[in-house]
Structure formats: structure tokens, C-alpha cells
Amino acid sequence: MTAKPFQISVSDDVLNDLRTRLARTLFTAASDTTYWAAGTDPGYLRELVTYWADGFDWRAAETALNAYPHHIAEIAGQQVHFVHLRGRGAEGAPPPLPLILTHGWPSSFVEMLRVAELLADPAGHGGDPADAFDVVIPSLPGFLYSELPQGPFTRRGVAETWHTLMTEALGYPRFGAFGGDIGGGVTQWLGSLYPGEVAGVHVTSAVITTDFREQPPTAEEEAYLEALSAYDATDQGYSEIMCTRPDTIAAALADSPAGLVAWIIDKYRDWSDCGGDLETRWDKDTLLTVATLYWATGTIGSSFRQYYNYPQNRPVPTITVPSAVTLSNEPAYANIPRSLTERLCTDLRHWSTPERGGHFMAHEEPEQVANELRAFFRPLRSGS
Question: What Gene3D superfamilies does the entry give (predicted)?
């Protein structure tokens, strides 16, 4: 099992077709006079689409992405794309600790690139070379250049694929894991399934059990779960359709780049720590780099598979490896009691609530995430 070098290359025909579609976009009127109250604001969308059609330089973005070392590995008949940054450790010191970073939805490997640079080369960014990591950033199955599995998309299944990628394709006998959202679930499963190989797990979306049969929730936990349910009632429209009718919405988004980017940026605004102002966190070039990757690969529909297959996920078993949480400041997690995570993580060594950075924390606050990861994994490098 070997990994082969890979380069991102979008054809001129795809880009020309994209610009033609963007130029012919039919825009809707706002349903509410309050800015963004009913979803992606049509005025902002028009501005973004206009720039995408005649201003955004995809070739410059493509060149920047290809400056990173991309690879493709075939695992159990499934193509897996990943970026692999070798750590620059101290001369004569133990080798860098391998670390796999897993993104969520509607994200991509792009979310992890800046933090990966900081982790792989700490000395180059004012840090200690002893903190260097070998960083692996895979694309989730069905996202961009990674293929869907033959069976259902489950977080456990992805964890099994990542374990094979790390231990067999890349030859790492021991590694750490980090992620948020779907990536957090995958990271949890890695820690639960492979305590012999996984040095520790670090997540930004806290672990929540669904089994309260033996120990009912405390009053504090019950209050949080009720608040989460109330929040979901206002936010979950997007997930309801992707869980039940993914092919219907995918047909629209695969045919309309304006619809595609509207679907994505609605979540970038809602879930990031931007205070309602999207461009305080995301410039247009960043948003359109992600959108162009989804468009060029035709994978917005396959990225929904993990929603459609969600009922086939099972509760994460007890996690015994050292665990850490740097809590996202998005509404779904900002006030979660630590005790909910302690129900599943028997060795919770690090709990941090920086109150900065939302759903895409590694992208929003890369320095913060790098510092948290260094601090958590520092005593775990030698296997203690």
C-alpha cells in the first residue's frame, strides 16, 4: 500500500463553464428585511458571485494549494486524498509526533493548512522545534478528491480508514488525532478503537453521550441538552433535507454555482465566530477557494452522504486514551458542561474554553489551536 503524489488541476473548460453559469445567475429577493435573517443574504450573494465570475483568480489559488505536498492512497479500494507535511524537529531529537487532522462539513482540507504549517515547523514560527509534528490532513470520504466508501459513511468507518492510512500507508506505529464536527467524531472513534496506536485525541466539539440509562443527566446537563434542542430547532433545516432528501438539494447545487456557494457560506457565517459579519473571518478569496474545489470536483452531493447515513452511526464507546477539548464558541457547544465529556473520556487531561473560534476553529484561530495541540501532546510524545 503506497501513496502517490497528487496535484490539483482544474481544466480551462470547467472554469469557462463556471464563469458562464455565474454570469447567468438568477437572483432572488430577500424574504426578510433583517440582514441574513432568512439565510444567505441575496445582496451579499450577488456581490460574491460577481467577484467569482470576474475577479477571483483561481489559478493563483490553485498554485498556492499545490505548494503543499498532496498525495493519493488507495485503501480498501477507496481513493483517499491527503496533505502530508513532514515536521522540522530539533537535530538529534526524537522524530516529530505524527498527527492526523480531520475537517468537518461544509469544510475541506483547506481548513487545516495554516495550523499544519505552525505544527510542522514550530521553530520557523517562533516556537520550540521539539514540538514539531508530522501532519496528515485527509479529505473526508466523498469530499473533493477522496472517494466515498462502498458501504455507508460512518464516523467509525472513517476512523478505520484513517488508521490504515496512518499505520500501513504511511508506516506510523503511533500517532495523535485532532478534529471538530464530523472530524471530531472520527477522532473520538480513533481514540476508542485504537488505544494501542493513538497517543491522544483532541477535539473542538465536545463528546456527548446519548446513553443516560445508567446515570441520568444532572440538572446542569439537562439544561444544556434542552438549550441545544431549542437551538437545533432554529438551525437544523439544512440538515433535515440532507438527512432525508440529499439528492433533491444536490441536484440544484450541482447545477448552480451560486446556489452552491450560498449553501456553504450560510454555515460559514452562522457557525464561525464572526459576530454576524462574515468577512471579519473569511475574505472572498478564501470562501471562493473552498466553493471552487467543491464545484470542480462535483462533490457537494457526495458530501451529504454522511448526513443521509447518520442513523447508521453508533454511540462512541468509552475513550480511554488521553483526551483534550478546546471548546468551540459556536452556539451548539459554547456552554456545554464538562461532565458530559467526562462520561465518555476516562482520561480527560485538558479542557479549555478560550471563547474564540467557532465551528472552523483551526481556520479561524490557527495559532490558538496550534498552541493547544502543542501543550496537550507535549507530555505524550514519549508514550507516557
Answer: alpha/beta hydrolase
Question: Rounded to 5 degrees, what are φ and ψ at 72?
Answer: -125, 130
In degrees, rounded to 5, the angle at the alpha carbon of residue 369 between the alpha carbons of residues 368 and 371 is 65
Q: What region does 191 belong to: left with phi over 0, alpha with psi -120 to 50, or beta?
A: alpha
CATH of span 3-380: 3.40.50.1820
Q: What are 44-86's pLDDT values in tens digits?
A: 999 999 999 999 999 999 999 999 999 999 998 999 999 999 9
0.90 cut: is pTM over it? yes
DSSP 117-159: HHHH-SGGGTS-GGG-EEEEEEPPTTSTTSPPPSS---HHHHH
**Domain definitions of the chain by residue range:** 3-380
| CA-atom Rg of the chain in angstroms | 20
Spatial separation of the C-alpha atoms in residues 383 and 322, rounded to whole Å = 11
Which tens digit of pLDDT belongs to each residue from 345-367? 999 999 999 999 999 999 999 99
Q: How far apart are CA 180 and CA 188, in angstroms?
A: 10
Query: What are the Cα distances from residue 366, in Å, to 13, 211, 214, 360?
Result: 35, 34, 39, 10
